[in-house]
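Kindly review both lines to help learners:
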Amino acid sequence: MNDTLYVFFCRFRRMCTGLVIKVTFAGGLCFLKRAPTKLSSLSASQNKTEIFLGLSNVKSKARRRQLAGAMIRASLKRLCRVKEVDPSDDTRLLRCLNTCDLVVLGVGSTLGAGVYVVAGSVAKAASGPAIVLSFLIAAVASILAGLCYAEFGARAPKTGSAYLYTYVTAGELLAFVTGWSLLISYAIGTSSVAKTWSTTFDMLIGGPIRKWSVENVPLNSDALAEYPDFLSVVLVIILTGLLCLGVKESALVGKVFTSVNMVVLIFVMVGGVLKGDLKNWSVNPDDVLAAANSTAQLSLKKSLGAGGFMPFGWTGVFSGAATCFYAFIGFECIATSGEEVKNPQKAIPVSIVSSLLICLLMYLGVSGALTALMPYYLLDERSPLPVAFSHVGWPMATNAVAAGSLCALSTSLLGAMFPMPRVVWAMAEDGLLFGFLRNVNERTKTPLVATVVSGVIAATTALLFNLKDLVDLMSIGALVAYTVVAACVVVLRYKPDRMASYEMSAAATDADTEGDVGVRQKDGLSATVRWLLLRPDKEPTPRSGFAVVVCTVILVALALVFSVVAVTIREAAWTPAFLAGVAAASVAVTAVVWRQPQNKAKLSFKVPLVPFMPLVSMMINTYLMVQLLTGPYLHYATCMSIGLLIYFSYGFRHSAQGQLDRLYGNQLDGRGDQI
């Protein structure tokens, strides 16, 4: 019994960093005794007091508060522990992908069904021919997020994507939230793409699958789909088996489908050049209404807008850009393959930027060709390209477009399934998810168990659930990850090197005891402002790094407030003045961050214009998240609650980083100095 208690209290001792406790046994009772001089906030006489386990048995209220405070601080420190990443560490996965493989993976994941559907729906309802500007604005926002991912790919070339990037910067709890958000996004994305593939294929052959399923196996539930989608399950199972065979084989199949998709899109652009008419970019509403009958005039007035290149003005362009932004989601799957790439520190940044630029060119070319082939107000929102080719007398092009759409959906499905098991494996490898998920097949060098589990979850979701109301979950998860990664880039860029921080902290302590801090204590706020803006540190220090962390949190809060007010109560009279005040405060806080010294560590890629570009990315992502206020946030909260339950019941206790910290803590005294 005593041995069991001794082990328990040794673990408790390691948890309470800075609170060194001696375990003694007397008469079958266990006592804790604080070692002298290990907790500087207590007096020498208090250090000699023995404390019985349990705060209720400590007679002194002050001592009880101090012990409780120490325990709370230790728990919070465990939630905020960061992961140390060594790029030179070996991996259990197979390094076989090159830059070309990653570019194809990124293009295939991003350039999916959106190019066949989104372009037509946005052009008709929001942007008109100015959809090219909407895609350009959306691409700028996506490239900003992509640059942040690219820098982290150079810093931490490991598997995990945004989950890993958050873990090395912001701590374990936020990393788990980010990783779980990614898993929600990937699960919903995989299931929705599989159902879209099934529906598209069924439509091409005349709809017999849906007709048979509705008649013979209806589900008859509002919470479930109209019928079980067995075809989508078969598709998910096939691609799960493909991923289990190996990453090289998956990349080869992705190359085939992506190549067919690119050929079809180039054909569409060539068709736009040959058969398109630029007069469709300058439609005159009066001429159209004069030629229409009285019945059609009512519907045409709404769809025509003001005519011309921007029939719905800049409001329509930006509204369309918000929708087009989601067409660029998918490039982040490149960042999940860090341990399967031959030269990840160079290949990942190049691949992310290259894939986004290729997708931008494709989206611009196809959307421009579409609006040139057919007037924007006549576009079909469900099948814009086949209808457009029929409009110009090329009905045979419908078959090519159908083949391209199925190939695009196949590569999107592969791109959605590829990162999910790798994030699961990375979280299990870190001890935050169940240990059996970290198993790697010795022959194929793939996370086999994580892949199978991910496939089962995606197949079950696609089989039973109606995903129409849950697709926004995919966007929410991606935007949460984008925002966190952008914030982490700012924090890490101004964070001192670990070895240098130890040296500077001692020097800062000496300086604090001599005069500078005395002046700040005397002058208060004015001295702090002078330090932040006029006399910042010349090199990154723990003090300047902490200031940047605080400023980044403030900027995220300001961006959230700005977005909520701008989206929900934009019509109020006081809104412009309030938004101007929030913008001014954001500029002031950004100036504080800008004045701090940056870490000059050499990387193969760095985001330019830090902190401005990451902060703009944070603002855009937050604004887009707020636009989903009517989205399924209750479902998101439910899914996140399940994840947090797993973390606090399992991951918090089994964290690999926590075990390393405890092992390292055995070599430290109460002040963190090595013995």
